[in-house]
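User: Please fill in residues for this 129-position structure.
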């Protein structure tokens, strides 16, 4: 269920420091950021050659789409939002980029997890595979 490419994983890992949080991603939960629902885009698994932080799963969310279906709960050590660049982040060089921004937990209950932006973000070139 990864759907997270190597270049995205590298930027996600750069957002993680010593402030890991345990987040259990489950099929019946909803996710919110600043009062708006966000959607599980995938889990970046901390395995294989794409990961320098082995064993560290990262939940990746988007403000677009719908939740990816997962068959059983997955424990993650961090969460991030993948998004388009804001106007002030754009460069006029014709290269398509995306941003990943670290999310921090505000509240967890049985049916939802509420996040806030941490202020930590990275950018990567959006390549087409």
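Assistant: Residues filled in for all 129 positions:
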């Amino acid at each position: 269920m990864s759907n997270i490419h190597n270049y995205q994983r590298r930027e996600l890992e750069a957002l993680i420091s010593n402030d890991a949080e345990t987040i259990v991603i489950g099929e019946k939960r909803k996710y919110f950021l600043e009062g708006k629902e966000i959607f599980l885009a995938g889990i970046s698994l901390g395995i294989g050659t794409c990961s320098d932080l082995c064993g560290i799963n990262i939940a990746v969310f988007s403000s677009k789409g719908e939740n990816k279906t997962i068959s059983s709960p997955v424990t993650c050590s961090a969460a991030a939002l993948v998004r388009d660049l804001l106007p002030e982040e754009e460069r006029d060089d014709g290269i398509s980029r995306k941003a990943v921004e670290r999310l921090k937990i505000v509240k967890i209950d049985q049916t939802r997890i509420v996040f806030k932006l941490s202020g930590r973000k990275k950018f990567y070139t959006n390549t087409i595979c």
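For context: The mean pLDDT is 78.
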